[in-house]
Amino acid sequence: MLTTSVEAICFNYRPKKDNTYPIMLRLTKSGKRKYVSLGVSVKEENWDFNKNIPKRNCPDRDTILSVIEKRTAEYRAQINGFIVENKDYTLETLVQRAESSVRNMTVGNYLDLFISQLAKENRLGYAESFKGLKSSLLLYCKSLDIKFSAIDNQWLKGYELHLKKEGKARNTIGIRFRSLRALYNKAIADEVVKKDYYPFDTFRVSQFHEQTKKRAIKREDIKRIIDLDLRTITNYRSPYLELGRDLFVFSYLSCGINLADMARIRYADIFNGRLQYHRKKTNKLITCKLQEPALKIIEKYRKEKVTPEDYIFPILDRKVHKTETQIRDKIRKANKATNKALHKIEEKLGLPIELTTYVARHSFATVLKRSGVSVSIISESLGHSSEKVTQIYLDSFDNEQIDNAMQHLL
Question: Which run of H or E residues covers position 53?
Fold first, then answer.
């Protein structure tokens, strides 16, 4: 019986969207070849094409090597099984038999790769949530050297009991399970586990959902915020008090844009009196007509000799904040300072709820809803259980209809 060679290669013929190339097992028998994806990829410069292994400076080198070793061992074991049984086989038969048990990647390895991929895509906030999931799972089961198929209904109930014993709030438990479900769904899509093993059809994550408390104020209160003489709060000029109010008002008038996106908008995102940008969280394209007060706020912060790539608001500086980590850290600080300023305005006006930038987002949706905009288009104050659903509705909503409805904002 002819032997079959099994080796890992970097399939550098067609790059993926992130400019990496897939690592594949190349099976060779009787002059024929077949390739099997390992579900991992590297940049071309991080692969040693002579030794067919990732270079020492390759990100996630240890994890990638582990995947290669395990998958290679699986195929060689299957080949040895055919030899012991004295059965001839084709490469198709070999792959079918080896893949019948689905990939042997552990939950830990896959989770590490997913977190690394999110970091490469600069989705650092999302990556943090999965780092939190990893830490939580390790406290529960001590080791993540398990297969996804081991996560069944009983396992999930045990994890739920563990989180409750830790004193975790219901919403926190829901966050952990939603992250785990998202990870499992991606593992199915990547063929790391069969869909037959999916445990979330019987274990309902929705049981942990708690309706978010409404955080919206009336249109009359918005006008009071706009008209407030800030000198009644402090005897000296407070730039951040002014900026805090301006950010709040701009958010309210501009489709409830949140601070993370507001800080990132540039002059290039304004065209023909419209704001157009991709939401950082969902990458959805948002476009809305800018109201006159919003345009005045933009002009207020315009500096001399600005370029299309300059940020509009004095939060980020493209010459200083270059990495995603630097940008996120600066926005966090700005959010804290902005909400502190808004709290002073709230106290002065005696508003019924704590004033934050988040309230502007809720109020935008609530005012439009009360003006007759369908709930299916603008959901409950953008505090819907799924922001992605809300954004999908916004995307399909005719721009002219939104523009007309936004006349009711003030």
Answer: strand 53-54
